[in-house]
Amino acid sequence: MWRDSFRLQIFCLLMAVLAIVVLVHNFFQLEHLDDDTVSGSNWITENNVQHSLSQTTKTTRKPYCGYKQQTLSRSEEAEQESLLAAIQWPKPPDGKIAFVQSTDPAHSDFVIVKPNGFFKVGDQLEVLVRMKDFQGKPKQYGGDYLQARIHSPLLKAGATGRIVDCHNGLYKVFFTLLWPGEVKVSVSLVHPSEAVQVLLRLREERPDRVYFKSSFKSGRYSETTECNVCLPGDLPVCNFTDLYTGEPWFCYKPRKLPCASRISHAKGGYQKGLLTQEESLFFQSDVNIKRPILSSGPDSVIVKPKAFT
């Protein structure tokens, strides 16, 4: 019995010594960190612009886009060219368009080609959309972002159309009639062509307009830094590029933690104030964003069931 009691006393003594060693180690670790817990506010300001560190380190602000210098294989170059061609968007003839000359959905209209024709399930319906500006003048170029659909509310049925930009202010929309009965046509302007050009500019000049953040943690110490495809400045970064797809992703490196200590990722917010006063006129929700374009004639057709022989 006394041997078991002695062993128990020795075990308790060792555990107490181990606890003291761990406590002293943590104390010196926290003291080494100067009792500083870095939060996201030190990296991401209330204006959604990271500038505090660039001021202290006096670095030149330039985008960190190291992935742009990557060497692509022939197949990757072909894929890149194909993707760029797929997202190519028509541009206005002039670099700067006045608001009154931009697309106005209220003045624009659409017509159903052959609205009184005989239609059956499986046929194609053609619609012509005519865009005008705020002065009521026909547009002479394309590039508007339109959405078009056919629908039957009673049947809870709907389908989208294929839109062809004629590059002269006219758009052709083609629908496949998939069900019988009365089918209504709806066309809406999501963004005028002038707004699309602003969005393209922001995509090229401000890829960081939507920013993200990641949290890093080791023990009781944590930091939060900004993350994006491109990061401004010459600060150290953590490279989280996907090794399989090659999709680039970077985060500012924590000041006192390794990159491997990242524990979470989240959306940080949007940078504001990127539009000029004139550009903001192209983004008015009650004027030219997601506004319906009305028909100048019938907006529906009657579809007959498909005849079987």
Task: Show the helix and strand layout.
Elements: H1 2-32, H2 52-57, E1 63-64, H3 74-86, E2 109-112, E3 119-120, E4 124-130, E5 145-152, E6 157-160, E7 162-165, E8 170-176, E9 181-191, H4 193-205, E10 210-218, E11 221-228, E12 231-232, E13 237-239, E14 250-252, E15 262-270, H5 277-280, E16 291-293, E17 300-304
Parallel strand pairs: 3-17
Antiparallel strand pairs: 1-12, 2-4, 4-8, 5-6, 5-9, 7-8, 9-16, 9-17, 10-11, 10-15, 11-14, 13-14
Number of strands: 17
What is the average per-residue confidence, as pLDDT, rounded to a whole number? 82
Assembly classification: single chain
| CATH topology-level fold name of the domain at 99-198 and 282-304 | Immunoglobulin-like
Write down the CATH class of the domain at 99-198 and 282-304: Mainly Beta
> Helix tally?
5
Poorly predicted sequence stretches spanning 5 or more consecutive residues: 21-61
Radius of gyration: 30 Å
CATH superfamily of the domain at 99-198 and 282-304: Immunoglobulins
Pfam family, one: Neurexophilin
InterPro entries: Ig-like_fold, Ig_E-set, NXPH/NXPE
Transmembrane segments: 6-28
Protein name: NXPE family member 3
What is the gist of this entry?
This protein is of the alpha+beta class. It has helices at 2-32, 52-57, 74-86, 193-205, 277-280; strands at 63-64, 109-112, 119-120, 124-130, 145-152, 157-160, 162-165, 170-176, 181-191, 210-218, 221-228, 231-232, 237-239, 250-252, 262-270, 291-293, 300-304. The protein has five helices and 17 strands.
